[in-house]
Design goal:
With 470 residues, this protein is mainly alpha-helical. It has 18 helices and three strands.
Length: 470
């Protein structure tokens, strides 16, 4: 590790732990334990599990389906299922349906794995910004004990994959920019950011941030004697060319694995359906079969126009201005087991983390003097890039759409408290221990709603702190 990346708290690794990898190991172990605990529970369909578990089986059948999101997340789960020789036969239409076998546990493994690696990913993201070990470890622990991040990672959902590749792409980009200046970290960043976008389009916020920073860097370089052709070329190849090729290539794989007519036919044009074996237009000689690029363009266009329509009508949708204070969580599923016992899964964040980092981030706007100065600008730009687009997008959205912005708030708070405040190392350790203790207490208190553990109606009511939560 370069001298520039050395700890700025006055504490070395040896002051905190005896082994330099202990903190990294701790984050991985805590991530694995919290994510994979109760992976089998509840044994019924939770939230959009009915949707994604059903879509995966189409890759085994080769039957065309339509989804509003790019294919990478579903392809990854299908590949994992193929490796372990499990062919999902699910065809659910509702939340709460009981799983007929234990295969659903296998389908939950990858989302949990990416969720488990998120704390380590955020540790490296903070370090890539020249953050101290203490700040990085604090940010990683905040991700471990954040209940909403846990819940969204725990089931057959795509967001943990999106977050992992998005923030890993940022970590690799800033490590290239601040330390290595070599091609490998930049290329790795482009690959990861492409994969994030290929899970959901909301991953464009991550790519938009690195484009903004690249334009900043190019502008800073224009003061030299020569135009920065090398900088422009390397950023364009790795942050435009590579993402485009990977995103497009995944659609090629998607089409290749779905050659037959299926439930998604009706979402596509007659020309598109002519390319599907067994469709009602397959033998229509009046139609010309489209090439890959026409199918690619049509599918992406239909995905764009279908997003708002498919998001309408959920009672647990929320407005963007409700997210920072977590005014409206999402009920993923609830079963009344008896008069005195129920199992409820709620996407409800740890309020001690959620509220604290939001107000700390607002306070830091005015008093945090980051070193270097552009770190503060980039992090607040990342928060805006993750949050601000929802001001203008029509449709119903959910609390989990704010989680990338929440992670930026965590990183800002960590750097502000442990690198930006002029306090002694002892006081920083006391602050660290106090906050982490409170975070753990909040995590444990709301944990039954994260895993869907058995709980009484009275205990459930004790956790409904706001009128908008039940």
């Amino acid at each position: 590790m370069s001298e520039e990346a050395e700890d700025k708290t006055g504490l070395s690794f040896k002051d905190i732990v005896t082994h330099k990898y202990a903190l990294l190991i701790a984050l991985v172990v805590l991530g694995l334990v919290t994510r994979f605990a109760f992976i089998w529970h509840p044994p019924y369909v939770v939230f959009d599990e009915y949707y994604f578990s059903t879509l995966v089986k189409h890759y085994f059948e080769g039957t065309y389906y339509f989804d509003i999101h790019p294919p990478f997340g579903k392809l990854l789960i299908a590949l994992f299922s193929y490796i372990f020789r499990f062919v999902p036969e699910y065809n659910f239409t509702r939340i709460g349906a009981a799983y007929p076998d234990n295969g659903y546990i296998l389908l939950r493994v990858l989302p949990n794995l990416f969720g488990a690696l998120m704390p380590l990913c955020i540790f490296f993201f903070v370090r890539s910004l020249r953050g101290s070990v203490l700040a990085a470890f604090f940010a990683g622990l905040a991700i471990v004990f954040e209940n909403a991040i846990l819940t969204q990672s725990h089931f057959i959902l795509l967001d943990s994959t999106l977050w992992f590749f998005g923030f890993l792409g940022l970590a690799l980009f800033f490590w290239h920019r601040n330390f290595s200046n070599g091609p490998y970290h930049l290329s790795g960043s482009g690959i990861c950011l492409a994969l994030a976008i290929s899970v959901k389009w909301t991953g464009l916020g991550f790519l938009g941030l690195v484009w903004m920073v690249s334009l900043w860097d190019i502008n800073q370089s224009l003061g030299g004697r020569k135009y920065p052709y090398g900088l422009v070329f390397s950023r364009a190849i790795n942050l435009i060319g590579i993402p485009f090729l990977i995103y497009t290539g995944l659609f090629w794989i998607h089409f290749a694995l779905l050659p037959n007519s299926g439930p998604g036919d009706e979402s596509m044009s007659p020309q598109f359906q002519k390319s599907l074996l067994g469709s009602k237009f397959a033998d229509d000689d009046s139609l010309s079969e489209p090439d890959f690029w026409k199918k690619y363009a049509e599918l992406n266009r239909n995905m764009y126009f279908s997003n708002a329509v498919l998001l309408e009508g959920s009672e647990y949708g929320s407005k963007f201005y409700e997210w920072p204070l977590m005014e409206r969580p999402v009920k993923f599923g609830i079963l009344r087991l008896s008069d005195n016992e129920l199992s409820a899964v709620y996407l409800l964040g740890n309020p001690f983390i959620w509220w604290f980092v939001f107000f700390a981030m607002l306070f830091a706007v005015f008093v945090w003097k980051a070193e270097p100065d552009d770190t503060k600008v980039f992090l607040y730009a990342g928060w805006l890039a993750s949050y601000f687009p929802f001001f203008f997008i029509h449709g119903v959205f959910f609390l989990y759409h704010y989680i990338p912005a929440l992670v930026f708030s965590v990183v800002i708070t960590a750097l502000f408290l442990f690198d930006g405040m002029k306090t002694s190392p002892r006081m920083r350790l006391i602050l660290f221990a106090t906050l982490v203790t409170v975070f753990i207490a909040g995590f444990l208190f709301f944990m039954p709603l994260s895993y869907g553990l058995k709980i009484s109606p009275v205990e459930f009511g004790m956790r409904m702190w706001s009128a908008g939560w039940p």
